[in-house]
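Thread: "does anyone have the structure for this chain?"

Original post by V.I.:
We have the sequence but no experimental structure in hand. Need at least a predicted one for the grant figures.
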Amino acid sequence: MADDETARYIMEQIIAGDGSGDNVPLSYIDEEGTQADMFLNMSADGNEEQQPQQQLAVKEGSGEPSGSTQGQKTRGRTKVMEGRLVITEVTEEGRPVAPEKVAKKYVSQIGAIVRDNVPISIREWKGRSTNPYALPETEKNMLWEDVKRHFTFPKGYSEKDVKAWTLKKMATQFQTFKKMLDTHYIKKGKTPDFNAWPKLRDHWDAFVEYKRSEEGVKKIMTNTANAS
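Reply from O.Q.:
Generated one for you, tokens below.
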């Protein structure tokens, strides 16, 4: 149970970040009882640290989240929030940056949205409309509409740029999430706790079969290259 909790927490931390850098080591004990370091994005890019979760509200007129941490447990699943938060500034590339706390919450929330709505059987974020394993554009549009239900953006913002930045971030979070599932479960011959991750259940067997076949192809290519 402790190993499953650690793996769940690691996946939550990584899907909240961008997986691209500014990493620091987090030590934990793996299933063999040895200490290991996982490098997690703990920058100001949306990760939730090992602190009590907050029940977020919006301070009137500021867009800042506020709330009490009393009675909240640590290492809880990041869930799609209820209500709405206000973004007051975005960069030219479309990245929300202010207020800082809301910007961090934005990244963790889009990670939760993509995790909850895109099945792990999806193999490609971009692909032909005839490809059954590629995420359709209609689904991406639905993800964006879901984001807009939870966040208000500044007047005059470029929706095209913010949407493009958000979907790109979601793509990275989704791929990293699947990579961590492979590393912490499939490669160790384990199965996630479907009570904690109920939306994985229906797609798990297909995901495992694909990852194992993918690994097999890689090994064949490596062996062929080494033999030549």
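V.I.: this helps a lot. The beta strands are 23-29, 35-41, 57-58, 65-66, 85-86, 89-90, 96-98, 151-152.
O.Q.: and Residues 2-48+56-67+74-227 form one domain.
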